[in-house]
Amino acid sequence: MKRPARPPRLLLSLCLLAGLALSCAACAEEPPPVVSVLGPWTGDEEKSFETVLDQFEKKYGIRYDYQGTTSLRETLLAQVEAGSPPDIAVLNSLGELTEYAHQGVLVPLPENVRERSPEPWAPELTVKGRKNAYWTPIKVDLKSVVWHYPGRAPQKGDWCVGVGSGATSGWPGSDWIEDILLQKWGPDVYELWATGELPWDSDEVRTAWETWGRLMAPGGDRSQADAALGNDFNGNDGKGLLKRSGDGCRREHQGSFVRRLYDEDITYVPTTRAVAELRNERGAYEVAGDMAALFDDTSGARALITFLTGDEARATWARAVPESNRPFFPVSVGSYGETWANRAVHDTLTGAKRLCADASDVMPPGVRGAFYRAVLEFLAAPEDKKLLKGLLAQLEDERLRHAELGTPRVPSVCAAPTGGTGTP
To answer: What UniProt keywords are attached to this protein's entry (predicted)?
Structure first.
């Protein structure tokens, strides 16, 4: 049987070279890397944030995969424990971020991002003997303010509060207590308490709770406190508590993000002007923020977190949303629009003498959760001193437990605003 003729060596070599060329072409056409991002924004807020991510992808050719969730803590914790965290996560809990940093899960920020990460939102941590910054604020909010209709005289028992949307929804109450303690005792005492150095059963903390109790149940009237337990902070209909009618609700202690629920007919004043017994001239305000942290040290993740802290991303984000919901940033990048509320919030943030991070955001997650639950129990009987004593004892036990465990703490909470007009 005649064997088929062998192909010439030259032809065989050409075939091999052609195959290699095709393989290399296939390699060159592999899709670019994808940066995974986990964050708190869903719905319309997710769409506006993705406008920023789209701009990043267009500019750098690096794709992204954004996952928005209202169960951020649980989702992130599960991913970290499974060994597959996102490249970047955005969360507001400085306490959680501190724990992740000390566990070696977070990557220190690039130097150019570190320079754009001001206190009190991004204090530097000392981890394994080295000082670094591990997260950066990409959006911030002002607290320590009271929203109201101009011209409507305040009345006793006219506070709008909504904590009835879930087991962890005590945060509007914790915001109240934090702000009262800040305004009554000043930033130094506030920082000691937020960082776990001041006991929960101290006179300062107890007085803050009692003050809030008098506001929620003036003269022992629990009707306002009962209403708070049945209301969501959105007003149960997504329109904001001040839009309710027929229940005498006239004033709301809430952060600047609540602007999205209201129109220009609602304005704010500092808490120190809304509550006579808190009046002072310290110029101190509580603030919160959404922090981005690196969980993986890839070139794409570093490029994205750098972009998110830059002027282009901030301007893109500001243009992507209605003016009533325009985000604020730790350093101004231009116009915030023409609404009174936007200008006023910006001026307050930059003109403050002291800005202090939300205390419950700073606390270890276990303490923060206990704080929220205690708020809900307290509202059932704000005038009951025995109940308050028991709640503070429980919170103190939780503080001591974390101290014994050596739970890492945020080192600082208050600072003068970066680039602002105030002085410490």
So the answer is: Signal, Transport
